[in-house]
Amino acid sequence: MSDPIETAIFEKLSAIDPKGDNGKSIEPAEVAKALQPEQWQRMMPKVRGMALGLMRQGRLTITKKGKPVDPNAFKGVIRLRYPTADETAAALAARPPVVTDDDDFA
Fold first, then answer.
1. How far is CA 38 from CA 34, 35, 41, 68, 70, in A?
2. Neighbouring residues of 37: CB distance < 8 A, sequence distance ≥ 6
3. CATH code for the domain in which residue 50 is found
4. How many domains does the chain have?
5. Coil, strand or helix: which one is 70?
6. Rounded distance between C-alpha atoms, residue 97 and residue 66, angstroms
7. DSSP secondary structure letter of residue 103
């Protein structure tokens, strides 16, 4: 089952960039307002956190002034968009390696 924040992010993106190839972006506040119109400010940290997780998975790009941000060091006003193929590859390459041979439990 998908997280409602994740679902809202991708619904908003799909509405403005259906194929994900135009580079159009949304504000995180749009997602927060769609989820909780009356208290959307309270949703902002959760939306930003979900966006960060999706960026680390290579499924989303967080930008500032049109440029992708470093997921480990950003603050301020951001926007969200679909990643390019290169951005997805870079995000996946930056992930820690998966250890399949764990001798501790042998």
1. 10, 9, 9, 30, 31
2. none
3. 1.10.10.10
4. 1
5. coil
6. 30
7. G
pLDDT for position 2: 79
Identify whether 100 is part of a domain: no
pLDDT in tens, 84-103: 888 888 888 887 777 776 66
In a domain, 59, yes or no: yes
d(CA 59, CA 95): 13
- pLDDT below 50 — which residues of the chain? none
Please state the pTM of the whole predicted model.
Answer: 0.84
What distance in Å separates the CA atoms of residue 64 and residue 68, rounded to the nearest whole number? Answer: 6
Residue 18's pLDDT is 84
Is position 66 within any domain?
A: yes
DSSP H or E run through 34: helix 28-35
Domain that holds residue 60: 4-90
d(CA 14, CA 36): 20
Contact between 81 and 61 under an 8 Å Cβ cutoff? The reply is yes
